[in-house]
């Protein structure tokens, strides 16, 4: 008859009640059992059964709870008061259960959120339907509200939801006695739970696959299943950390700050808390140890006029006119910012001329030296600059490693732009050979690298892509120096293949090196015939190509010029939309990135994929875009395997062997299709010298020839053309 059977044994015999019928109808049913002393009431949907137990014992001693099945080792037979009951007779439950609560404990939720330490789950746990209640909007990152102290001495169960477009900010903070404290913050789009029991601060970092500042609701659950175990669950991804010190109690006191702290507290916050401002966005569903808190109601001890009920989205939004010169509009909560890194321009809307330097006839060099203890290993690199020159052959930029022969070199070869890079196996090259740039007009070069793959774009021409065949290394080890205007031969103390002309708006991995030179940054060295410019002449601008002819005024300070162009829209930094965007986003994981990371992140045990996010510390001016997918290359050069270790390869570009390079470049009539034209092949020969002295190259330039472009390749767009 498929009814429910409830059996109860208090030690003096089993009492059995049956209720309902035809319960195997694939419909939801609600069962509720209440006992007060010897009285039992069983409710199934709208049916009720009541019974009274006989005997003197009224206490139920619970050793374990089994849901859906009995323990495989616990097949007992009871012979009490004539009732024979064996667990072997009861089959396992097959179906769905939800909302199992016993004596106020929601065991399903506690098990899923890591709130129970001694449990075992073999059933499939479904995703939680997250209902948003009591939402509030923090309209500014310079505000907060104060709540009563969080009680977390030996146990804690904290839950809240949030959504934002901001990548950083304190969500919650409660100080304590001596060194004790707990905090929740966003850092670079990931969530940190930081606490100190008195033995030193510990940090648990979210291990979600993507960043959390995507303007979607995310759920945070923090718990202490035991005195030494601490859990952080963000959405459905769980991370845990154990405390090993002598102290096991979290002794908090004072206000629980929500959305930020008092302005005078930021400078005295514990070292592991990175944020120096509050949270801007929405917070909802705040639950502290089972008590629902209304952040806009009577629970607030210190209110704020900048915190309002409800969740309102961004007021000021990106538009197609927000950023000039194809700058990328980055939406924030109540504003937007323009990412100008790949434009060669600067300013709040990428409309201002960037700092420019002139490299004179007597040659000169600007060098940025990475500190010896802060030399990053990178898997992704971004380089952009503007220039004008009449040189046919010169080195514009050279980036060198401090521990290997890894290098990148942007140069002019017979008036064409060419980038050559080596990550430890062979020289890889990519260039724009369909037109010359030594015409004394302003040109913009954008280069991106993702592992061994790369793209390059000059002005608004098609993006050239390269994906080398064969096994390639992917890490540029230990960035040591960036040279602009040539390359220094330290043995001869001479600048080789010097560049003569103007360089402006130079950005490499977020470092605005020319701006740093103006500010007399100690990491910058300027030598030779190099002069700071006041401006690049306005009357010679060419709107169609981002080009202008090159008269310039020399002055001690750089000023700005206005320009125009179409912007490109972008999701906030670290918030990829995989189904609509062709950019490469590495999975976000434990927060370690490919530049140098000074964070003291604790090792966590996660339930999700522990992916590594290659990120460098961007310039405070803007976020930084991520390189696009690179297309398969037509390069047929043979790969020589000189090293099998991305991280520790020392041989680099080899030791004196001669390499012949074949570079293919082409263009299409438009970005989405059309005929192909202007395809050229350039062959040049380089002789690779050992790491010391630096590389010296010789060039052989045959006449340019035409050849068809393979029809099965198309060009991914990174920046759209200006209409």
Task: Provide keyphrases for this structure.
723 residues; mainly beta; Jelly Rolls; nine-stranded antiparallel sheet; 2 helices
- Please tell me the CATH architecture of the largest domain by its name: Sandwich
Total DSSP helices: 2
Beta content comes to 35-45%
Decide which structural class fits the backbone. Answer: mainly beta
The major pleated sheet works out as: 13 strands, antiparallel
Looking at how many chains there are and whether they match, the oligomeric state comes to: single chain
What integer is the average pLDDT? 75
Would you give an account of this structure?
- The chain folds into three domains: 4-97, Jelly Rolls (Sandwich), CATH 2.60.120.200; 136-309, Sandwich (Jelly Rolls), CATH 2.60.120; 345-559 and 630-687, Jelly Rolls (Sandwich), CATH 2.60.120.
- Helix content is 2%, strand content 38%.
- The chain has two helices and 48 strands.
- The strands form twelve sheets. Strands 28, 29, 30, 31, 32, 33, 34, 35, 36, 37, 40, 41 and 44 form a 13-stranded antiparallel beta sheet that branches.
- Residues 75-84 and 538-723 have low confidence and may be disordered.
- This is Neurexin.
- It comes from Medioppia subpectinata.
